[in-house]
Amino acid sequence: MGQNIIEIRRITKKFANARQYAVDDVSLNIPKGAFITIMGSSGSGKTTLLKMVNRIYEPTRGEIFFEGQNIAGLKVEEYRKKIGYVIQQIGLFPHMQVFENISVVPKSLKWDKSRIEERVNYLLELVRLQPHIYRNRYPSQLSGGQQQRVGLARAMAAEPSIMLMDEPFGAIDLITRQSLQEELLEIHKKLEKTILFVTHDIHEAFKLGEQVIIMHEGKVQQFDTPYNILFRPANDYVKKLIATESIFEKLRVLRVGSIMTPIQSVPQNAVPGAREDEPLSSVFGKFIESENRSLYVENSDGRIVGQIYWDSFQSIPTFKNGKIEYYV
Ligand SMILES: Nc1ncnc2c1ncn2[C@@H]1O[C@H](COP(=O)(O)OP(=O)(O)OP(=O)(O)O)[C@@H](O)[C@H]1O
Ligand SMILES: [Mg+2]
What we know:
Low-confidence stretches: 320-328
Bound molecules: adenosine-5'-triphosphate, magnesium ion
Number of strands: 14
Order of helices and strands: EEEHEEHEHHHHHEHEHEEHHHEEHEEH
Distance between the termini: 41 Å
Structural class: alpha/beta
CATH superfamily of the largest domain: P-loop containing nucleotide triphosphate hydrolases
Number of helices: 14
């Protein structure tokens, strides 16, 4: 089991009186430290799946292992404290101020006051809410985006090893949403937490997920890298799902890191021409505008970590023979 924090074995959920399975024979391995997004239409079973991982629902059949242990055998209350859960509706306690909302789980774990104090301030800074301004506000005195940030801080409060996030940015305007996405990516990079993140926004799924799970009618249709989902869809459902994305849209949601060639030794005079997290569409533009046929790629610390080649674009299936082909 080792590197998988969660292993899901043939899990099925059928609600009483329901005709169909909400989750239908799903098996998944979630590697420790991964950022995985789950995408699917409304009613495809995403929330039900997360709730079974968090033991809010018990599965009809199948088993879930957390760090190698069958969760059915763990004490629910203790197990849940190891999991950070951001629910689909923000779900802050309305009668509690921000500080109290965030400190619920640490308090129940009997952390001492100064440790809680320090942790809440740290988390508020992390989600970019200045503690002295926001800590004593009630949820009703915050904007939707600020409430989401508090929800995120609350889920991280007791240093859980995994975060389950159910459409956390669903009800937020595009600009705020983009900055929350960037912040979450930063937080993930910094803290190396495992994140399972549900969304029905294809761009959000591909931007955030190192791997993406596509669900439909309770089943996993494909669990793969954004690149493979966009260019090697596993079945007709996935093909249809991404058919609306033009080739430029696809390049826009993929990052340079997805097709770059890593390098170990960097020539002295090498100058970076692209960033690892830059969209492929912008590098495509750079190639077209210049004579360059390869660029050095730097990571967020400014270190050169790889190269990207014009020819790499040729290896993208839809660029076959130098022509752009579309899915229909
Ligand atoms: N408590 C419940 N009792 C009965 N049926 C339920 C219950 N919760 C969910 N369902 C049904 O199970 C199926 C999957 O629901 P689920 O909430 O997991 O979907 P979802 O993928 O999260 O959808 P959305 O994107 O709309 O949030 C749906 O058909 C839903 O009606
Ligand atoms: Mg849902």
